[in-house]
Design goal:
With 128 residues, this protein is mostly beta strands. Helix content is 9%, strand content 38%.
C-alpha cells in the first residue's frame, strides 16, 4: 500500500496501531526503511513508500528516567530505540524498572492499547 493514499502517512500509521499492527515504511526506490511516516523518502526523494511489518527487534540507543512522585504515577522510562531495520523511534521499555534500562539492551516491540489507542512499547528480549 502506498503512503499517499487517503488519510496521509501519519494517519495510516496510527490506524494500523489502533488495529494492533506495528508497521513502518520501506522505500521501493532505494530500499531504505523510513520512520516517522512520510510521503517522500528522506534518502532518495521517491514517493514510492510501502508499508511493511518490521522484525520488531532492536536495541536501546538512548534512555532516560523521568522522575515523578508516586501519586503522579511514579518514575517512567523514555527511550530511543534503534530497530533492526536501521530506523529509530521514541518509546519506552516496559518489564523492568525505569532505572534499569541500559543503552545497548536488546528489546522487542509490542503493541498495547493505551487510553483507547494503539501504542508501540518495547520489552527486554529476556522478559518475553
Amino acid at each position: 500500500m502506498q503512503s499517499n493514499e487517503p488519510g496521509g502517512a501519519e494517519a495510516r500509521y496510527f490506524s494500523a496501531l489502533n488495529q494492533g499492527r506495528f508497521v513502518i515504511q520501506r522505500c521501493a526506490g532505494c530500499g531504505n526503511h523510513v520512520f516517522y511516516p512520510r510521503s517522500i523518502c528522506p534518502h532518495c526523494s521517491s514517493d514510492r513508500l510501502e508499508w511493511v511489518e518490521p522484525k520488531g527487534t532492536g536495541t536501546v540507543y538512548s534512555a532516560t528516567t523521568v522522575r515523578r512522585k508516586p501519586e503522579a504515577g511514579g518514575d517512567y522510562n523514555v527511550s530511543l530505540i534503534e530497530l533492526a531495520e536501521g530506523v529509530r523511534m521514541m518509546s519506552r521499555v516496559d518489564g523492568v524498572p525505569p532505572a534499569e534500562v541500559r543503552i545497548g539492551m536488546p528489546v522487542r516491540a509490542k503493541v498495547i492499547q493505551h487510553n483507547g489507542a494503539g501504542l508501540v512499547v518495547f520489552e527486554p528480549e529476556a522478559v518475553r
